[in-house]
Amino acid sequence: QVQLVESGGGLVQAGGSLRLSCAASGFTFSRETLSWYRQGPGKERELVATITPANTPLNYADAVKGRFTVSRDNDQKTVYLQMNSLKPEDTALYHCTVVRARRYWGPGTQVTVYS
User: Could you tell me the sign of the dihedral formed by the alpha carbons of 95, 58, 48, 81, in that order?
Assistant: First the structure.
């Protein structure tokens, strides 16, 4: 079965950096597009970034362009989200997802940015 497990979240001061990881299993990782979503307190869930099987980033949210970078390691079956210059408004639960017949979600990793 499809499993996605995020890690790397935490508490960080504004201006700091974090790297999120998402370990995947249960499907042919190298053939699938994956995405990062986030949902902040009192906010709707939003797409953060997408990455193709060929490691091409797509669809960065305007709020994160120039600060976040999505990447993947097909050998390790892991997708990453490097987050730099973090802002308090980046505080959210971050999920990675993959679509296979339906969208699968990991449980998420919490990122909290304080000023």
Answer: positive
